[in-house]
Amino acid sequence: MITFEEAIYTVLKNARPLPPATTPIEEAVGRALAEDVRSAVEMPPFDKSAVDGYAARAADIKPGAALRCRGLVQAGQGYKGKIKPGECVKVMTGAPVPAGADAVVMVEDSAEEGSLIKFSAAIRKGANIARRGEDIKKGQLILRRGTVITVSHIAALAAAGRGRVKTGALPAVALVNTGGEIVPPGRPLGKNRIYNSNGPMLSAMLRADGINAAPVIVPDVAARLRAALAKALESDMVLISGGVSMGDYDLVPGLLKELGVKKVFHKVRVRPGKPMFFGVKGKKLVFGIPGNPVANFMAYLAYIRPAIRKLAGRPDSAPLFLEGACEVKFDPRTPRRAMMLSTVRAAAEFALTPVSNNGSADILALAAANGFTMVPEGGALRKGERTKFISWL
User: Fold this and answer.
1) Does the first or last residue of the chain, that is N or C, have fewer Cβ atoms within 10 Å of its Cβ?
2) Cα 357 to the chain's mean position, in Å?
């Protein structure tokens, strides 16, 4: 039985990045760039007005000065002539500054008197003009290869003329729920049945990582389960919830072996999630997750999300463990590494408190928590002691 840390390391070691994909920028958030991105254009591509106002020669603008208005230029239009001394042109924000003008006076500092425009104050040369290329130069490096794209990057990519970028590819994921007792939520619940909580939860977590995968429910019948697993193995990654322990109907490990999946490890010295199975078939990754919801949730944070990120070429693939201080004693009473459901409170430092629960099937405890606190194997944590945790804040 391997340690929790060894399990994380082993999963990431076996996750090899997929070939890059060409991705529309609107769908690229959360993906890592597989190329350096340089601007195809200057930004702005011309001298433009930063305000609604009047374009003129700064030398003509003095308190009480009156200039003749020669027209109006809206954003997306242009002025064919050239401004001469004693003239001005009304311009809207984003419109090109007419030739001959070297400043724009805000409309608030002017007054219309017939065809003349009077100004209340002098203005400096270049005022209220966004100069060509002042934000981005043509050929300028916008984002480096390996950058994980966030929503704040999208406008820069678009302004640089990029509608698509080369990124790491998200894996195709198959999600299989085993058990003859589980029923999709929303359907009538028959005798001796329970609703499928793991499937929708894992599906939602995958969706948060940009992956659409609907759960498939398969009873613990060898032929049907084997067929479902064979179909699932057409994907880059397979998540199997349930059927990986040592019971009479825990058929998954044996069927996976028949289907050519090589076991990398089965059982981890951690609670929850001791019966965790991980295997590979070529470059495909296969996760057999114990059927309890808390174990499913912890496995996703510790193993599955990191594997997805590694496959997608992200440099930040390892699970993010932060450090905080225990507000009370943590005593899991287990010889294994314990990942205890906790509430994480952000103060001067993160403050950790265990959530009372009835074990790894306690869904309400999971709903009340926002983190797992790490407790050493066979030990406990004193009040005030510092330790690592992982959170979904």
Assistant:
1) C
2) 30
